[in-house]
Amino acid sequence: MGEDGQIRRDRVIIDTDPGIDDSMTILMAFGEPNVEIIGLTTIFGNVTTEYATRNALLLCERAGHPEVPVAEGSPEPLKGGEPRVADFVHGSDGLGNLSLPAPTTKKVEESAAEFMVNKVSQFPGEISVLALGPLTNVALVCLQLQDKAIYHAVCHARG
């Protein structure tokens, strides 16, 4: 509870590679009254980064939160090479090959790392990053902030 007596909601960025498992986590987070999802950032893992972004936009729309920004992350590991995806588990689209229509909303222009850096700067000490997939975007944030005093985010890795 905040000083003003209002219930404080945790500000969360979910860094995700939304296949079936992450989709359930994201939908549950949208339903949690003490969580304010301030953005989804995407990464390869269960699917390619392009499909991860598509799925994140669809999830925001389906959850009734099309206003939540989605920032696309790195399409490959830091050391380069082709990312491995789990299409044998989640289907080629990451959502069990449901053939859902394309999202009507668009991703934001800034990259996932830029989005996280901007939000951590905007809300120092108030952001939690829930990392559900590979940590490439989080590593890029660390590289950008290595010499800055605003390096104040809590990171929970669960992927």
UniProtKB/TrEMBL annotation:
Q: Which SUPFAM superfamilies match?
A: Nucleoside hydrolase
Which keywords, in A-to-Z order, does the entry hold?
Answer: Glycosidase, Hydrolase
What one GO molecular function would you report for this record?
A: purine nucleosidase activity
Q: Which is one Gene Ontology cellular component term of this protein?
A: cytosol
Its Gene Ontology biological processes? Answer: purine nucleoside catabolic process
Q: Does the keyword Lipoprotein apply?
A: no
Inosine/uridine-preferring nucleoside hydrolase domain ranges (all copies): 12-143
What family does this belong to?
Answer: Belongs to the IUNH family.
The name this protein goes by in its record = Inosine/uridine-preferring nucleoside hydrolase domain-containing protein
Originating organism: Aegilops tauschii subsp. strangulata
| Phylogenetic placement of the source organism | Eukaryota, Viridiplantae, Streptophyta, Embryophyta, Tracheophyta
